[in-house]
Write a structure and sequence with these properties.
Number of helices: 11
Number of domains: 2
Number of strands: 8
Order of helices and strands: EHHHEHEHEHEHHEHEHEH
Strand order of the largest sheet: 2-1-3-4
Structural class: alpha/beta
CATH topology of the largest domain: Rossmann fold
Mean pLDDT: 95
């Protein structure tokens, strides 16, 4: 006899996080939560916590205020504003695809809207099947691993837990690659094409990859598939890693050093960040402002930034399709 049960379903989109305001106090609260996670900083607590509380939190938040002020919108943090639009767009598409309502919400691994509050809302609404989709296409223990850990911990005490699907990554998903290609092509149609496309991914410490983290190989796969979709020659593009922090070696080549090299060579440059699901501090301030200035300081004359996928139709289609494939499986 066929199973006719139709569970009430939910999709949880999770991004990294953002301060609630561009102020030192709000940034300090966010950094305290973020940098206290042992998944993010794989250093013994006895060594790391005195550094965090004695050196980083007293100073770094004040230094970050001007950067956040430059990107803040009247509606708030770009990451949160765009994320809410993404959740709304995915919900609309799932309704059409599955023919039933699906509750789609945004949560942040650190900051607001928080994972505990959002999961509690799903529980109160009686969601029986939950797909957790971290908005990190490439797997790293510091991002997706941290989200999976947090969700498991938060659901541990529930007497009745929802059917749970934790999405591992989508670095080579055909819809995601198509969305990336469409974004670059649309940028070229509006602004013209630079001689070189630099694909900049968020960095992680080299030690994480040495310990088995697949992040670098997944970034390389995404970059290769995107280059193939755009029909680029190997000399037309390159890959680099940005946003390093501290003195330990991170994944190389570093984006800032690569930009300086390309500027010295007089190369008209397009920069795209395929690993960021939404524009945020790293794309809007680090790349579009600081790296643009670095490029000009080193003699470059043509620097363009391709926006993140944000809530483009192609991106929302891809995210909805990833979730729909999990939600469409009949329960046993």
């Amino acid at each position: 006899m066929p199973n006719t049960r139709n569970p009430y379903s939910g999709v949880l989109l999770v991004n990294l996080g953002t301060p609630s305001a561009p102020t030192a106090a709000a940034i300090r609260r966010y950094l305290r939560e973020f940098l206290s996670d042992p998944r993010v900083i794989e250093v013994p607590r006895a060594v790391w916590l005195p550094i965090l509380h004695g050196a980083i939190l007293p100073r770094r938040p004040r230094r970050l205020v001007p950067a956040y002020e430059k990107i803040w919108t009247p509606e708030g943090s770009p990451l949160r504003v765009i994320g809410e639009r993404q959740a709304h767009g995915v919900a609309e598409r799932l309704q059409k695809t599955l023919g039933k309502p699906v509750e789609v919400r945004l949560a942040m691994a650190y900051g607001e809207p928080s994972l505990p509050a959002t999961l509690a809302e799903f529980h109160s609404q009686g969601v029986e099947r939950l797909v957790v989709l971290p908005l990190f296409p490439q797997y790293s223990g510091a991002t997706i691993g941290a989200v999976h850990d947090a969700v498991g911990t938060l659901l541990r005490g529930q007497r009745v837990r929802p059917e749970l699907c934790l999405i591992h990554d989508y670095h080579k998903d055909s819809g995601y690659i198509a969305a990336l290609a469409a974004s670059v092509q649309a940028h070229w149609a509006r602004h013209g094409r630079g001689r070189h496309l630099l694909l900049s991914f968020h960095g992680v410490p080299q030690s994480y990859v040495d310990a088995g983290d697949p992040y670098r190989s997944q970034c390389e796969t995404t970059a290769r598939l995107l280059a193939e979709a755009l029909r680029l020659k190997t000399t037309d593009w390159s890959l680099a890693f940005q946003s390093r922090f501290g003195k330990a070696p991170w994944l190389k080549p570093y984006t800032d050093e690569r930009i300086a090299e390309l500027a010295h060579a007089g190369t008209p440059l397009d920069v795209f960040c395929p690993g960021f699901a939404a524009d945020c501090l790293e794309t809007l301030e680090e790349v579009a402002i600081r790296y643009r200035a670095l490029y000009a300081q080193n003699g470059g004359s043509a620097f363009h930034v391709v926006p993140a996928l944000n809530d483009s139709p192609e991106h929302l289609d891809a995210l909805a399709a990833i979730a729909a494939r999990r939600l469409a499986v009949e329960p046993v």
